[in-house]
Structure formats: C-alpha cells, structure tokens
Design brief:
There is one protein chain. This protein is of the alpha/beta class. The chain has one helix and nine strands; from the N terminus they run αβββββββββ. The protein has two domains: about 35 residues; about 90 residues, Immunoglobulin-like, CATH 2.60.40. Helix content is about 20%, strand content about 40%. A hairpin with a 4-residue loop joins strand 5 and strand 6. It is globular, with a radius of gyration of 25 Å. About 10% of the residues have low confidence. The structure holds copper (II) ion (CU).
C-alpha cells in the first residue's frame, strides 16, 4: 500500500513538471513572433522646423518596418511616402505617430514628404532606399 502511494506521488510530480514545461514552451513560442524593426524619424531637430532627421533611411527588400514619426517642432506635420501609400496622419507638435509597412520586394528609392501645403517645398523631403 505504501509503495502504491509513493508511485502515485512520483507520477503526480512528473505530471506537474510536464505541465509546467509545456506551459513554458507555449509562452516561449509567442516570443518567436517577428517584431518589425523600428525607425524613428524626427522633425524639428535643432530648430529645423521643415526638415526630417534622418533625411535618408534604408530598409531591406520586403522588410517589415515600423516607422515612428516624432514631431519635435513647433507646428503640426505629417509623414507620407506617396508612391507606397504609407501615411502617418498629421501629428501635432510634441506628439508622435507611427505606421508599420512592408518594404517593396524590389530595390528602389522613394521620396517621403510632409504633405502639409508648403512644407515639402520648405525642405520636408527625404528618401527611403529599399535595397
Ligand atoms: Cu510639415
């Protein structure tokens, strides 16, 4: 009788450890989800109201990329890549906006701009290089 109880305790212990391991593994697999690389583009750096910093960004072909637009200026701006239909809507001074995009599958260079009238002409342009 004593022996049977002992076996039952061992079996239960093994079962508990097994369940814990399965639990650990399944929570592990969720961390395998690919997180997009993040790029931050800032405006208003060093008082340059109508400029993006950096003005050139490089991404890999087909790369999933999260773009964060950080408006450190004193007026509202937006961020658009017209040819790729990528848009971060008007972002007020001191705020950030973001968008996640998948880069084209072929290399190329695309302009990004602030689409608020007059801002592109004042210098709010940059290049996204896909390579
Ligand atoms: Cu602007």
């Amino acid at each position: 009788m004593q022996n049977i109880n002992f076996k039952l305790v061992i079996f239960s212990s093994v079962l508990i450890v097994f369940i814990a391991l399965v639990g650990a593994c399944s929570s592990d697999s969720s961390s395998n989800v690919v997180q997009p690389n993040q790029l931050t583009i800032t405006s208003g750096v060093d008082g340059a109201e109508f400029a993006f910093d950096p003005a050139t960004i490089e991404v890999g072909v087909s790369e999933t990329i999260k773009i964060v637009f950080d408006n450190k200026g004193t007026i509202a701006h937006d961020f658009e890549i017209p040819d790729l239909e990528v848009v971060i809507a008007t972002t007020n001074a001191g705020n950030t906006g973001e968008v996640t995009m998948v880069a084209p599958s072929v290399p190329g260079t695309y302009d990004f701009i602030c689409s608020i009238p007059g801002h592109k002409e004042a210098g709010m342009v940059g290049k996204l290089i896909v390579q």
